[in-house]
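Subject — a protein and its fold
Fields — amino acid sequence, structure tokens
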Amino acid sequence: MEHRDFSGTLVGVVTVQEEVGLRGAKVATYKVNPDYAFVIDTIPCADTPDSLGTLPVGIGKGPVIPALAGSSIRGNIMAPQMKKLITTYAEQTNIPYQLAVLPGASSDVSAVHLEREGVLAGAITFPRRYSHSPVEMADLNDFVKGLDLLKAIIEDNENWGSMDFI
């Protein structure tokens, strides 16, 4: 593995109880008190003829960047700076992505961005079919591309200020 300098402290957190109130994300964010956060999650898609949903994303098309997800108290409108940061790095690294508005879906980012004084947060999510069933499926290439995107963003964090993101 190649050694790279990193400006800052990187903290990874795995949370629990997302679907019953985003509880783990709230506690972890409060404890860590990050300057900014990236939430990694999966998201249901409706890209088959028998789909009951209307989420405009599909597997095999790259990670999903939810500009808006959820509604009411369980929702999040991604900060324009974070949206620009994620999409710019995706374009610079030739990583396909799906920008989406998902009013019926939510993730831990809905809790993270509201902790303390507010946390600049964004999400990189991965589409999946047949959610919460024995035959749930996803394209592993979407995960690889999303990880590559996250690594590119994190490794270049010293340059964000000069790029007028944050």
Observations:
- The CA atoms of residues 43 and 127 lie 5 Å apart.
- The longest strand covers residues 36-44.
